[in-house]
Design goal:
Elements (H helix, E strand, L loop, with lengths): L2 H5 L10 H12 L4 H12 L9 H12 L18 H11 L3 H4 L3 H12 L5 H17 L2 H4 L3 H14 L14 H23 L6 E2 L3 E2 L3 H12 L1
Antiparallel strand pairs: 1-2
Helix pairs in contact: 2-3, 4-5, 5-8, 7-8, 8-11, 10-11, 10-12, 11-12
Length: 228
């Protein structure tokens, strides 16, 4: 059965919950085939009772995002590839609304860092993952956030330093204007995440069971360097 055929009857199955329909509809809406994408969009519009705090659904969506190709417990024939960029962007929008995801600890950290630092990531994924990171800092419980606080802060420090402007040759300045604008947007999101971290649930002095993380002074210095 084709993907379009799977999406077409959505809404005709009263025994399926919106949470059961959601993963297929989301995947369809991000499909490169325009006719499939329209079917997915139509299916999403009909969903009214999605519960973003349901553990089974959120685990399924995070698994789809990351894939299972590195799993040692799943046979190679049944492993999933990571979601496409378009699908990941849609997933990030939804995941950024779930307090359950904010409190998933290491799995959420892996997902965010995958978007921020993976060689195959894109600027759009970096921006969307920073929005999720701000949500995590605002909504995660102290008990779930503190063990990973040092890692999060070190990641932000690394990202801010990567955003630091590089000297460009005069001949390259005109061609790099769009890249500069994208970098400015990334810096703004990174600074916002840093402010959420330092002013939110993370204490930037002694965190994570006594481990020393970057101080608020170091974060602020990195912010200033990135914005200079």
């Amino acid at each position: 059965m084709s993907f379009v055929a799977m999406l077409s009857p959505i809404g005709a199955y009263p025994l399926l919950t919106d949470n059961q329909i959601l993963p297929v509809a989301l995947a369809g809406s991000a499909h490169p085939d325009e006719s499939v994408a329209r079917k997915g969009e139509d299916a999403l519009k009909r969903l009214r009772e999605v519960d973003v705090e349901e553990p089974k659904l959120m685990h399924e969506l995070m698994t789809r995002f990351l894939g299972t190709k590195d799993s040692k417990t799943i046979p190679a024939s049944k492993q999933r590839q990571p979601a496409s960029e378009a699908y990941r962007l849609r997933l990030l929008t939804l995941l950024s609304k779930s307090q359950l995801v904010a409190n998933q600890g290491a799995l959420t950290l892996k997902l965010i860092f995958e978007c921020l630092f993976a060689p195959t990531s894109t600027r759009r994924l970096q921006l969307s993952s920073l929005q999720l990171l701000c949500f995590v800092f605002r909504c995660a419980s102290t008990s779930s956030l503190e063990p990973l606080a040092t890692v999060y802060l070190q990641g932000l420090l690394r990202l801010l330093m990567l955003c630091k402007p590089q000297q460009e040759a005069p001949s390259e300045s005109s061609s790099s204007s769009s890249s500069s604008s994208a970098s400015d947007s990334l810096i703004a999101h990174a600074v916002r995440a840093s402010d959420s971290a330092v002013g939110g649930n993370i204490s930037s002095g002694s965190v994570g069971g006594g481990k020393k993380g970057p101080t608020s002074g170091q974060i602020n210095m990195a912010k200033q360097a990135a914005q200079t």
